[in-house]
Design the sequence.
């Protein structure tokens, strides 16, 4: 059987294109199949990432895809009480995902990868020697391995998705070097709303909810006095943690396809990007040494992220139980203990571990016990191995 390529990558967004860049640069015949007619569209990602995470992925914030840098995060309670988290090192950025994805596509193509647009993957079949990919128009492609990077389209349990929505809007009255997070069950029960400034005038504004995103979004825009917006996109968000296994024989899952996002925020640039690097390395070893080393991808990813994901899932389970009066109570406790402004050395992608280290376990347990019952405090002690 004649193969079209060594590797087919289904999905030409960030995780898939990072795989294409890594694999093609090492000489493997790589083909990317992207369902849309353009790379980088539609723009559903907040684009927030840390400088350290980009560096770990071998990427650098070139001016063409760096939009803004933040020195603080401001939390807003339902009654608009505010807590400011000052960042010791302003290393949290917002990047232009369209430009970044196109940069990765260009780098992959320079190394020999083939990019095919408007190719909707409609079926995947595999046997002991190859993977067959069927396109909706009837076209067939074959390769030795497939990387599934189609995002939520191939995430197995869509009932677990939150209904996210995001647009660009013209804003006033909010600091441009600050990410604004709004905690209010009226707009985003179980999640949060956000304003992320791109510059002094335009921001990304959005929220996620299990209920009615359009209605919640309109109400939120009224609250924050954003009257003009554009580029409105639905943005389903995965917050339940990764799938159990990232490998199914000759198919490897990366990014949102594998649920590799943060359970607290749904962000997946670093979690999914790290998976792309690890999966690519595993496939390269497999081709070079002709033996099965692919499972190392899965083990290596969980070794890095499993503990943080456990922390994040526990934090999410707490937050989902909170009503607005609980949120106000939490704000009052934090202000009483730390004042309105806190300075932290935060690792953006491991932020729960950072908070535990900065605040201290005893303080976290004390706050938790004040708001929640003893059973939840016991769960926290258990996961912290106390």
Sequence:
């Amino acid at each position: 059987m004649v193969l079209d390529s060594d590797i087919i990558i289904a999905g030409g967004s960030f995780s898939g294109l990072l795989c294409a860049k890594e694999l093609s640069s090492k000489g493997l015949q790589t083909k990317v199949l992207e369902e849309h007619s353009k790379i980088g569209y539609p723009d559903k990602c907040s684009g927030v990432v840390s400088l350290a995470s980009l560096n770990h992925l071998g990427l650098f914030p070139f001016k063409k895809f760096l939009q803004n840098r933040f020195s603080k995060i401001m939390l807003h309670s339902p009654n608009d009480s505010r807590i400011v988290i000052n960042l010791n090192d302003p290393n949290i950025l917002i990047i232009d995902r369209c430009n970044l994805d196109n940069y990765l596509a260009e780098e992959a193509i320079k190394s020999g990868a083939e990019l095919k647009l408007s190719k909707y993957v409609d079926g995947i079949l595999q046997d002991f020697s190859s993977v067959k990919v069927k396109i909706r128009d009837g076209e067939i492609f074959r390769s030795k391995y497939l990387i599934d990077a189609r995002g939520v389209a191939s995430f197995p349990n869509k009932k677990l998705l939150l209904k996210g929505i995001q647009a660009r809007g013209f804003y006033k009255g909010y600091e441009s070097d600050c990410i604004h997070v709004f905690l209010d069950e009226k707009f985003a029960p179980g999640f949060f709303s956000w304003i992320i400034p791109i510059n002094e005038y335009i921001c990304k504004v959005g929220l996620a909810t299990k209920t009615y995103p359009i209605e919640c979004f309109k109400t939120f825009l009224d609250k924050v006095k954003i009257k003009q917006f554009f580029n409105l996109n639905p943005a389903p968000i995965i917050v339940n943690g990764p799938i159990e296994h990232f490998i199914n024989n000759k198919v490897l899952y990366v990014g949102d396809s594998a649920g590799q996002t943060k359970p607290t925020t749904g962000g997946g640039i670093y979690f999914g990007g790290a998976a792309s690097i690890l999966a690519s390395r595993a496939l390269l070893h497999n081709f070079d040494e002709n033996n099965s080393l692919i499972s190392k991808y899965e083990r290596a990813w969980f070794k890095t992220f499993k503990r943080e994901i456990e922390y994040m899932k526990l934090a999410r389970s707490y937050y989902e139980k909170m009503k607005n009066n609980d949120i106000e109570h939490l704000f009052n406790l934090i202000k009483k203990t730390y004042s309105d402004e806190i300075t932290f050395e935060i690792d953006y992608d491991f932020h729960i571990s950072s908070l535990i280290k900065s605040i201290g376990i005893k303080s976290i347990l004390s706050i938790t016990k004040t708001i929640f019952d003893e059973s939840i405090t016991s769960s926290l002690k258990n996961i912290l191995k106390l």
The radius of gyration is 21 Å.
